[in-house]
Amino acid sequence: MIRTASALAAAMLAVVSPTVAAAETGKPVSIVLVHGAFVDGSGWQAVYDLLSADGYEVLVVQNPTVTLAGDVAATERVIAMAKHPVVLVGHSYGGAVITEAGDNPKVKSLAYIAAFAPAAGESILSLAEQPVPPGESKAPLLPPKDGYLITDPAKFPAAFAAEVDPKVTRFMAAAQVPWGLEAVQTKITRVAWKTKPTHFMVTTQDHMIPPSAQRGMAKRAGAKTVEISSSHAVMLAHPQDVAAFIRTADVP
Q: What pLDDT is attached to residue 5?
């Protein structure tokens, strides 16, 4: 069932606090946040603050974004550090990372946010090459250079985070982390969403990953899905809604 983000946030106000719930069930949870391409883990700060204030242990992965295997390994190291069973959260390319790393038995559930959720044998490249319907657009990437991709800096603010302060997004455009072609082209071999409870937040104003593609991947994964009117960087534009969404992944 698809719910709006505002309805989700309102519903979460009626849920007992995670700290109390953990004490009552005896099953405390850690949340591991995995960022996507072109950025680093600092984009999660507002969401981190909200969830930490709720009493969750929140850990943030810093992916090199050079190879998929390297990013999966970085995520697995953080999962190993977690004190409790893990809700594993991936944004954008981070969805491919959690699809592999989520196979870890310590991971209890997955949360995809404006993300790729590949199947076995798929890569980010194969998903990105699929046609999009009228009215949607693909990420404005520049041609590869020296084995890496970046988003066109002039188009980055509108494509990545249209609702965010332009001063912030202009800096993000200038400070992009190049995305390795090996990460883009490597095919998925382990598919955690086939066996783990899965949640998906679709960003309906996304110009990096088309909303129709997000919906298709969410449906294929059998995910509990929420939609929000947001650009790609929803954790920057709507951190309260994102935190509320992640909390639902801690509910059986």
A: 52
